[in-house]
Amino acid sequence: xxxxxxxxxxxxxxxxxxxxxxxxxxxxxxxxxxxxxxxxxxxxxxxxxxxxxxxxxxxxxxxxxxxxxxxxxxxxxxxxxxxxxxxxxxxxxxxxxxxxxxxxxxxxxxxxxxxxxxxxxxxxxxxxxxxxxxxxxxxxxxxxxxxx
Amino acid sequence: xxxxxxxxxxxxxxxxxxxxxxxxxxxxxxxxxxxxxxxxxxxxxxxxxxxxxxxxxxxxxxxxxxxxxxxxxxxxxxxxxxxxxxxxxxxxxxxxxxxxxxxxxxxxxxxxxxxxx
Lengths: 148, 117
Fold this sequence. Notes:
The complex is a heterodimer of chains A (148) and B (117). Chain A is built from 5 helices and 5 strands. Chain A is an alpha+beta fold and 148 residues long. Chain B contains 4 helices and 6 strands, in the order ββαββαβαβα. The mean pLDDT of chain B is 93.
């Protein structure tokens, strides 16, 4: 039988919650018995997506809501990170490596590039003044003994 | 606090040891410590020792690039040593290795910074 599992998490757009979010999602994913590298990648992409919600979606306002849904189906994981912030006007530009709309904040512009490289799939949808949703997918290869 | 910063001076090199996790929340701590130390002397090289850094994302890259630009203006150089595997991959993707000196150990980084200056 294909295993199915799901979690949801909502928290305020405060930078102190970045580590909370990545540790929580990593703990959920750990039931797939990922390698240390795979777990580190998951933590990094969650951190990138949540940081984007806080800095760009809510422009450092601390009362916004960040939501994360994670679903495990078989050996695959889907993680959706969303905010109800200002949205992204030019998605193509935002996804370019080294591009940042906030150079004054010492942003590297590498967030989406890291998400795209560390995950199998990275889909971004955004509506100005309504919010942004990032959907990440990754396939994990389970060994036979773990499936029993 | 999820990040601790320890500094020491060895010759012309400011050694910055990062302990914990470097992200958007903790990057300003490192920035402030390094800026304070940089203001104390005219020319200084910086070595960031990542041996005890357990996590870093692109906010760390932004912070390092920011310090690199400041150092460049003052004629200093920057090095990073003891990079854990998970952080190595983030740094590699950013292209930082093309402009910043990478060393296996603190001693190696210091001798290379001093030889090349």
